[in-house]
Amino acid sequence: LCRGGLAERLCRLQNRERSAISFWRHQCLSGDRIPSDKSGVLIVKILEIFEECTIQVAICQQLEQSPATLSPEDAVINAEEPILKVLFTRETAAHLKSRPQDVIHIYPPWQKLLIQNADVPVIMNTYFSQKVLLSEHSEAREKTYGLTKMLIRKNIISLAQTFRLDDVNDKLHQESSDNQVPCAPQTHKNGDSQRRPLALSAVNDSLLEMVESQGAVGWREVQVQVVIQRVYCLPAREGYRSHTQGNKPLLSNGGMFCRLCLLVQDAYGMFSEVQLQSLSSTDGIEQYCRRWEGKSCCLAGMKILQRTTRGRALGLFSLIDIVPVKVPGQSQDSEMMTTNLPPPSFCYILTVQSGEIHVEVDEEEQISNLYQPPAVHGLKEILRIDGCNERCSFWGQVLYQRLQTKHSVPIDQREMLLFVTDSTLQNVAHGIPKVVAVSVTASCVLSMEITEALSAGSQLFFKDALWGNGRIICVERTVLLLQKPLLCSAAGADLSELTGPVRLDELDSTTQASSICALRGTVVGVNESTAFSWPTCNRCGNGKLEVCPQDRELLYCNQCSEVVTAPVLKMQLEVFLSCPSRPQSTVKVKVWHEITMFVLLTMLLFLQTYEVQSVLGKEVGLLSCYVHSITSHPNCVALEEIVLL
């Protein structure tokens, strides 16, 4: 704080105020009597209590100074006595634990505020307040009430209503008695109902106000209206299986359990991630995306799981940054934007409470103007983006998939490489690769439909993948879909499907490891020491055959549970090529049985009775290969022949 500034002075004033309040309450609790001088003390009897904007509002009747023997029950309400609206802070309310019919002494310096066009005065600055217990009967009642927690009705006042915004939907402000929780049986006297105005609860439209008013415990009696920006799945933490509801399973991602999540935004640009508890494995994530994204929904039964910041959740905020934040309080239809408005710096992670109605989505409603559909780009355009950790969406053809082989990591936690292309890359002459590698991390949830589509080499829609440092990565909150979304911003991108044959970049000096390329060259050698063959089952292709227990001259397949009488022999060879595109490098290619190059070499070897000299000097290509490694000392390129999907 600036020395001598207003903020520093205010901070000192607040510290002194807190110290004075603490000392005064200590005197009350330690038995020290408050001065018997009652001059300036306001005595009120509570008629009704509710909460509004974290302030406890008590509708009270002012009493004359009562005798010392008068109990709160005997303090009869006189219609002639004035009605007051007394405001207590959250801390003061927690200290008093007051209920209707309680008598409260409010010591100076309380203040009375007279509001224009309002009949009920407001009492503020009530820090020095004390509940009066004047009889043994009252003390017994206090002990009994202390065992039960009183429910306080919370009135939700929409920010749009506070600022009188004309463009906000009226239904957000409709009074709803279903959202009210009465604090106690209330007494209504004839003639005083007009003197005690009550604000009824309504559907709120501000996430931040809900958090402020309801706290982290839960929103059991209120709801907030938001727009669903994204639907995705996140891996469930250990032990999450115990939180599923009934027999309803979670979506399984190769044995890893997942939960359905929503990224929602309120009318004022505030975001929250809602983590739902269960998702049926029979209903794919794609259906939820189509049915829910862009629709308005009401959240109820929520509780705050975590308040996270940009520094702790870069992945979440990279998704939030996709949606431009308009000026708070402006119409969602307004074109007024500001470049000076800072992006959100924090976000609340919400989860559901068991036994509550969590999310109510109006699927028949039109798409909200607040919804920001994924901006689809061609891969050529994505490769030219200069930023880091940018979310991108594209439509691509999967040519080849490969699981990263790290033996120390379990299979379900390994990364997978997808080699993808589209029409924007295939039509480029030079300078841009024709195929890009997309890394799929273990945290990216893939449905069974997507897993099957990857094996078949289908075209997929990659929604909200992460681009940075020259790589496209599918991480948490990235969704892979079989079809393009109904709503997407193409921004002039070429989304046409591939029609002709796919071309790969040929091996040259720019080729990198962990990529795929086309290869042509001349056979200059065969590594006979590493060549081997193995029998496989002619029915299922199982390569792990065992000796038959009954007849050790036969082989047995555990998968088929039958004897293999005609096994298929498969072999592996390493071939050295001379390539004109890399004349200084030793190019070593691993070839497998039933692949083009292997069939050619095997035929020649059989015809020449396995004479290696018979294949030397033979031309091969174009071959589709995966690049394992590239080394400079020695200058060697290790490849493996593959079959494109």
UniProtKB/TrEMBL annotation:
Q: Which domain of life is it from?
A: Eukaryota
A GO BP entry is: double-strand break repair via homologous recombination
Annotated DUF4502 domain ranges read 1-113
Among InterPro entries, the record links this protein to: DNA_repair-scaffolding, DUF4502, DUF4503
Query: The DUF4503 domain covers which part of the protein?
Result: 265-644
Q: Which GO terms describe its cellular component?
A: nuclear chromosome; nucleoplasm
Q: Where is this region: Disordered?
A: 175-196
Q: What is the protein's name according to its record? A: SPIDR protein
